[in-house]
Specification:
Number of domains: 2
CATH class of the largest domain: Alpha Beta
CATH topology of the largest domain: Nucleotidyltransferase, domain 5
Largest sheet: 7 strands, mixed
Distance between the termini: 26 Å
CATH architecture of the largest domain: 2-Layer Sandwich
Helix content: 25-40%
Order of helices and strands: EEEHHHEEHEHHEEEHHHHEHEHHE
Structural class: alpha/beta
Number of helices: 13
CATH superfamily of the largest domain: ATPase, nucleotide binding domain
Strand content: 15-25%
Oligomer: single chain
Amino acid sequence: MQKEYISLGLMSGTSGDGVDASLIRSDGITNYEVLKNRYFEYDKDIFEDIHKLKEKIFKKKDLNTYVNEISELERKITLFHSKATSYFNDKYKNLIIGFHGQTIFHNPTEKISYQLGDGNLLSQLTKNKIVFNFRENDIMNEGEGAPLTPIFHQLIASKTNIELPVCFLNIGGISNVTIIKDTSNFSKIFSQDIGPGNCLIDSWVRKNSENKFDKNGQLAISGKKNEIILEQAQELFSNRPDKNKRSLDTNDFDVSFVRGLNLEDGSATLTEFTASIIGNKLSNLFKNFDYQIKNIFLCGGGRKNDFLIKKIKTYLSTDIKISLIDKLKIDGDFIESQAFAFLAIRTLKNLPISFPNTTGCKKPCVGGKIIEN
């Protein structure tokens, strides 16, 4: 019997609104049990600082230009994660912490994926073993450093009564897809980022209102999409030079093409644009497989945008059932935080977390750096 560990996964996604924390018990291979999930919202200053800084960093050299701002924000974010950890440390001691950090720049072409988060400081503050910097080794082995959750999606598929092959669609800031054909064979996992998720809509709403996102798509519903702008944006996206990238960053997209529209019409146009990319990409992917996928399970914050999901369905070329992963009695808000708790255990056991068909790496890669308490 494999040894089991109690691991805390801390995930701060591209929305930059807070930290998802998940405590699991797992052997890092075939078993896992969720012990507790909790969300910790960033205060206004951290939230605004993340997005202001991210909008300044477009090239690797920008990391040096803004090094002082980066260092200051990294310390604030690490202290915030430490406070979040204390909620679990009261009951559970000697945890393994899978510390993802806050992505501030991701560009595998430049061989870098930079997450704000000081693993050494977090270890000192929490007195726990820390696993962080999950993406670097994959990138050094010709991978793109993302997506990293597919192996956990495969575990979910093995533990639930899901008809295979199955598709997991995660709509966070970026949308990514995992297709599982076989729950016992890592080489049968296929995954990649497929386009924007919430990032464009969220950015537009932040810049033009006091809100952080378009709740349930209500702004988009009340607006009218601009057909001319939409068609131009779709054409530019389909002809972009880096269309073969497996992983994407929010900085790969911007909302400038809807500049001049009002809040509602901009939201409607961006929602339609996002849905068209996701739906068309899924349809094209499915055509390339020699098997039929009957179910798509939705994860991430974007699954709650009913209007976005409705629009995605209109772009799917096949009759396929789309369901919230919550239907499987799994909280769709915490898949990624649970995944990084799981990946931390695999790192500790020197087991691979990424594969050629998930990130494009040349061989299965162990990832993450370990800081012993």
